[in-house]
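Human:
If only I could read backbone structure tokens as easily as an amino acid sequence. I am handing you a single protein, as its sequence and its fold in token form. I hope you can help me see how the letters and the tokens relate. Thank you; the sequence and its tokens follow:
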Amino acid sequence: MNRELEYMFVERARVWIPDAEEVWKSAELNKDYKNGDASLVLMLEDGTNIEHKLDPKTKNLPYLRNPDILVGENDLTALSYLHEPAVLHNLKVRFVDSKLIYTYCGIVLVAINPYETLPIYGTDIINAYSGQNMGDMDPHIFAVAEEAYKQMARDERNQSIIVSGESGAGKTVSAKYAMRYFATVSGSASEANVEQKVLASNPIMEAIGNAKTTRNDNSSRFGKYIEIGFDTRFRIIGANMRTYLLEKSRVVFQADEERNYHIFYQLCASSHLPEFKTLKLSSANDFLYTRQGRSPVIVGVDDTKELNATRNAFMLLGINESYQMGLFRVLAAILHLGNVEIKDRDSDSSVIAPNNRHLTAFCELVGVTYQDMTQWLCHRKLKTAAETYIKPLPRLQATNARDALSKHIYAKLFNWIVEHVNKALITNVKQHSFIGVLDIYGFETFEINSFEQFCINYANEKLQQQFNMHVFKLEQEEYMKEQIPWTLIDFYDNQPCINLIEAKMGILDLLDEECKMPKGSDDSWAQKLYNTHLKTCSLFEKPRMSNRAFIIQHFADKVEYQCDGFLEKNKDTVNEEQINVLKASKKFDLLVELFQDEHPATSPTGQVAGTGGRTRLSIKPDKSREKSSKEHKKTVGCQFRNSLQMLMETLNATTPHYVRCIKPNDFKLAFTFDPKRAVQQLRACGVLETIRISAAGFPSRWTYQEFFSRYRVLMKQKDVLPDKRLTCRNVLEKLVEDQDKYQFGKTKIFFRAGQVAYLEKLRADKLRAACIRIQKTIRCWLARKKYLRKRCAAITIQRFTRGYQARCLAKFMRRSQAATVIQKYQRMCVEKKRYRQKQAAALAMQTILRGYMARQKYQGLLRQHMAVIIQKRIRGWLARCWYKRCLESIVYLQCCIRRMRARRELKKLKIEARSVEHFKKLNKGMENKIMQLQRKVDEQSKEMRLTNERLNGLETSYSAESERMRGELSRLRGVEEDAKNKTIQVTSLLEELERLRKELSVTQKEKKTIEDWAHTYRNEMEKMVSELKEQNGSLKKDKDDLNRLIQEQSQQMTEKMARAIAEETQQLETDLNEERSRYQNLLTEHLRLEEKYDDLKEVALSSNVSKPGHRRTDSTHSSNESEYTYNSEYAELEEGSRAAEDVTRGIDTSLTLKLQKRLTELEQEKQSLRNELENKEDQFQRARARDDAEFKKARGAELEYESLKRQELESENKKLKHNLAEMRQSLLGNAATNSGAPGSPAYKVLLDQLNSSCEELDVRKEEVLILRSQLVSQKEAMHHKETMTEPSVYVEDVSKLKDADEIKQAYVGLKDTNRSPRFMHKPLDVNDLLSRLRSAAPDFHKLNEDGELWLVNQGLKETIRLLEHQLQTQRRGHDNEVEALRGELQNVKEENNRQQQLLAQNLQLPPEARIEASLQHEITRLTNENLEFMAEDPTASREARVIILRRMVDLMEQLEKQDRTIRKLKKQLKVYSKRIGEMGAGQTEGQTSPGQMVDEPIHPVNIPRREKDFQGMLEYKKEDELKLVKNLILELKPRGVAVNLIPGLPAYILFMCLRHADYVNDDQKVRTLLTSTINSIKKILKKRGDDFETVSFWLSNTCRFLHCLKQYSGDEAFMKHNTSRQNEHCLSNFDLAEYRQVISDLAIQIYQQLIKCMENILHPMIVSGMLEHETIQGVSGVKPTGLRKRTSSIADEGTYTLDSILRQLSAFHSTMCQHGTDPELIKQVVKQQFYIIGAVTLNNLLLRKDMCSWSKGMQIRYNVSQLEEWLRDKGLMTCGAKETLEPLIQAAQLLQVKKKTDEDAEAICSMCQALTTAQIVKVLNLYTPVNEFEERVSVAFIRTIQTRLRDRCESPQLLMDTKMIYPVTFPFNPSCLALETIQIPSSLQLGFLTRV
């Protein structure tokens, strides 16, 4: 022991130390503990160092903490250290961190109230726990209920579930869920819905017995024990309820923040209803009894809805409306009674005011007089031996008496309701066993404790004693079973406390004695208690400061009780006169019934209560009427003691199961854990006592195999022996020296507390040492590898460094040599340059000097020459001056004239300039105007040149004139006098000439300005033209971009529409699958009701004996039988129907009507769903047809096709006319002979015409089919074009014109179209055009280059409009034609009917007259038509011909749709031709000439007999039908047929028999054969429905039979793959579409039965093979599991493994393949199989904490990979089965991925798409490390996951629906097997069948 202590209390060991706030606090040792140390040096979790002193007397060390891998275990007994802090910490971790509210503690289930609605109580959870062992699943109330149910069925012993806890801990909810589990799992033995009635009692009892308290909004204020009865098949047959200690004081008083019972508030909230007007109720705040707590409303509770639920529960339990209203009247009367105000009359009396409205309402409701109630509310009758006195009561006593009456009435009402609830739950079936559910208050201690707390704690003392004895007994049985030495365990026995309370002269006895005393009081009773028990009993104490209280030491704690009110509450007295007044009520029978206990109460349903079960409450004494007067004298304490004793006797006679409810905090906060409150309740409820008892013995228990697997690491190889038990013994002797610490049992090893932790520490140390060694080796290897890499790198670096240095030296030497050479050449260049500079300077100086001398000489010569020139120039100038003066005078005159002309020209130029500006504004013909201006500028330049030439001519003439004037001047000089006379004239001329010169200069300046402006204008125009070209290019680019954008948009739109169509298709498929699923579920429900109906018939047949005599045949059949009933039923079916009639008469009429009504509703719903499905399919087909029609209208090729069609038909009409003419000529030419005889030319021509018409009809059919296929391809090609928008259509139309010539031609055509008056527009303004072109986003309709492209676009639009208009016109014409053709079609149909009638008439004629009549009729008809055509004008004739052609087209289309009619006509034609040939053979020999005999030999009609050709039909007699069904269905063994015969042989045989019945046109035979086949298949499946081979065999044959009915039905859709021979075998007389639907429904039922059978086989294998079995050995370790042992993961002989699942799947697959099941159907079955495997595995994973580990995730992924490999081997990877395993795969990946950082959270969210948020969070909460090296998932990480997945829209359901079945479809699978080749083996004993 000291060695172990020294080994455990070492440095870094963790311990628990007491704490005032947290109760226990974790700490860690800073140094090793040594024996004798007085204190421990500890460090808290927050880093604080403290010194913990040990008790010097006991030297007790603090509690050690369990290893982390044991924390959070499902069972507290699995903890190695069993003590209070370990239990508290484990519960806190599970509750707060893992959100798990249930934990096992040995045989006790600890349930912590989460104060939050959790999704763990659904039907899927119930199904998951059903049939499971208690230790195999996580703790749950359903596991306890399942254990009780299983032990009841296995041990044949009654069970009890004891649910206890304080108020607000969740007792009522736990009991409710336990009852719901029983009701769901077991069901009821009859159709009386007993399980629903049991559940319906809950809302009633909650309404009348629950109330809001400060601790709980729905607190049960009474205890109840419900016995749920079961029959021999363990189905619920009834229930019985006992109640204990109703808190009556709550009726008249409630503390703050509390409420009265719920029913009062429900009535007040519903007071506005019409039926409650008579109760005269109002708000709850208006009544004293409901407003004292000042909290009339509970948040989240609607009292009106709760009352509706209560009333519905009353109705379900048989309490009718009248009784309900009576109950509500009593409750309303109580409320009104509480409002009756009693006033003081004097100090000793009281009075009630007259006409008190509340008392008046009370009297009206209960039917008593106002005076009587007023009298006895304020007075009391006292009886003595001699006289009777009436004593007035003071106000206080009268008020107390009023409240006592209210409490008494409510108690009676409560008991009455409980009694009638029990009556409703009792049945006449004998009870075989029962399970009791006890919902009783837990140990209570308050600041002020009174009589109620005393009784509650007394009951808990009794229950705790029973609990301790049961736990002790189980421990003893376990030790004795394992044959280990038994030592007495000391446990707390509370018998002394019980004796203190209930023994003779105990507290209750003294209390009853004091109540009998005339002047007994609470004080005198307290003194008696002190005198009796204070010195004799150590458990009884007296408070120091009080003489009116006492203290009792209970098992949980000391409780101080106040004596005030004990006597009054124990007496529970009420004024008898008040009771008598109420009994005297004559208007209210229910009230009288409440107070007459001696008479049996009348059942609300009008029936007398049965004798079975308990009908009385245990608190009522079973006395006769004579002793009823003493009933009120029996005290409450005595009644409670007796009922408690009866309860204990019941519990001791049953096997108890314990549920302890814990309230985590007092503030109702969700998942908030208060350690103080939890420890108080754990101590009070006995959980810690269980731990103490377990810890005193051997709490830890391991099987030898589990111990070996877990601690194999502590063994050496030599220690491992073949015998595992001997190996474990040897190892333990070495590891644990003290042999008292463990014991070896037969199958288990038992350990003392702490030993598992010790072994775990040894194992962890060994693993840690191994890890260190592994790490050391790996680190050494890594370091050496790193050293070698560094050494290699250093050598490499040295090599490269030395090479680099050598290269650097060589480079330096080369550079030095190169520098020397460079210096040499550089110096040489410098010297050369210096020499050349000196030489150049000398030469330059010489050159300059010589040049200066030469220039000086040249200047001298030049000056001399200039002087000569100056002289010459001056002389010339003087001569020219005179000449110029003369010239100026002449020029002046010329300028005046030219000025006038120039001004005129200037005006024209200005006008032209203004016209240019106008041109700019109008912006018309810009380029033409520019060219005109250019021409004008050129003309002006030409004019200027002409003007210059004229000026030159004038100058020339002027020089000549000047010469002449010189001569004239010399002449005038001679006449000087004449010159003087004209001097004045010359002066004036000179002035005029000067003025002209000035004007000429101005004109020249203006000319230059004009030239500059023209030049500038030309540049601007050129710039504008270039800008326009650039803009044109940009517009072209924009156009290309727009085209590209339009194309992209069109492509996107196409893709979008394709996606939309795909989504719509997917949605339609989803809706169709949902409808299929609903329909198939209805079929399942229908089948279930049929089976239940058959079971009822069997039960009735076994329990009743039919009476002799004539019986009327039962006409009530199933839906299928009612549709296909036939007269000749089997003998056994007749007997069954007769027996069923007798049974029906014996069964309850209401039950029969209910079943019939339910069947009718299901049939109607089935039919409505079928109609809805057909309507949806029809709508889908009509939508497709409508789309096809629209596409057909849209294409223009149809018109051309119809025109070709018309032409072809016209030619055919001509040919027919020609043939008709030939026939007419032949008939006219042989009029004398017998034209109707066979062999005559007319007869031959007629036969030839008929044959050619048939052949032509076949040819035309083929051509029509070809044309239709071509049109369909054209429609699909044009589909994209028709779905685009208008711009994309334009783009596509333009893009189709790829050739340049085509584009040019289209452009020219559209341009010509645009030049029409309709498209002539006003020319565009230049500025407007520029603004459009320069805009940021130009409209693609507004283009450049004179708007030509825009005009093209407009023209294209107009063309399209015209084409659309034409198309619409053609469509309207086409529609009109269609209407006309429909009328014609109707006429043709009428004509066809007439022809058929005529044909029928002809068939009745003799053969000789038949041909003449038909020919005569045809000739008459054709002649009339020709005469009508010839009489009319040619135009009308052509129109009529066209109409006829169209009519013929429609007839051809109608003929195509009626292939079956055509085939029948062909057959009849052949038969008629053969008959005509046979009849006319003899006549032809005598009537034909020899020439005819030679030219046209007549072949005989009868052919030689050959071997018989079978038609694939089987004939049987009517009386052999029973034998056929018996041999082929009922007695057929599938194994022999599957192995030796072809697959589906029974289906082929049945169809061949059906073909013969169709061939002979026997509808009765067809109906009886199909009905007997369906019923026989149902019968064999009901008989052998659990045999997978049988179900698979008939599923295959039913599908094959269904395919045969489709393949040979004659419908085109099913005849595509038939051979010509198979088409001849089609059914000819009957349409079996309705029967196909019935057989399809039958196939669906068989498929569902197959899935159910397969699920029953697979279900036991899945959990063991997929989860528990270790496919990869050694990956996962075994952890301690506590008292609840789980299934071992080690494969035993009877354990299922993954190989078992794979073998079973292979067996299923091979069986279906042998039976010839359709491959598509096999895929659906495999998909369903894998879904079941994945769903069951995932559900168990979500409900098993021990399976959520990293190693288990690896195992699951390996198992899934094996399943995928199986799919790959079978070629089923594409069936969708792998996708069904995706949730399981993702769950396994979730167990293996990292779960720390935000990146990990993001990866988990993106990976787990198939899992819901609830499933992801559940897996993370359940994740449990198997070894210490793994880490738990932090709460913060889980919250991060929840935050990221918050926006997901998904179902909150946790588990997958394992009952879900995918809707099955049966794709058409035609058979290539010819029916005539099928041979019937003799082994089937079908020799009575004849092949036809």
Q: What stands out?
A: The longest strand covers residues 236-244. The first helix runs from residue 2 to 8. The chain has a mean pLDDT of 77.
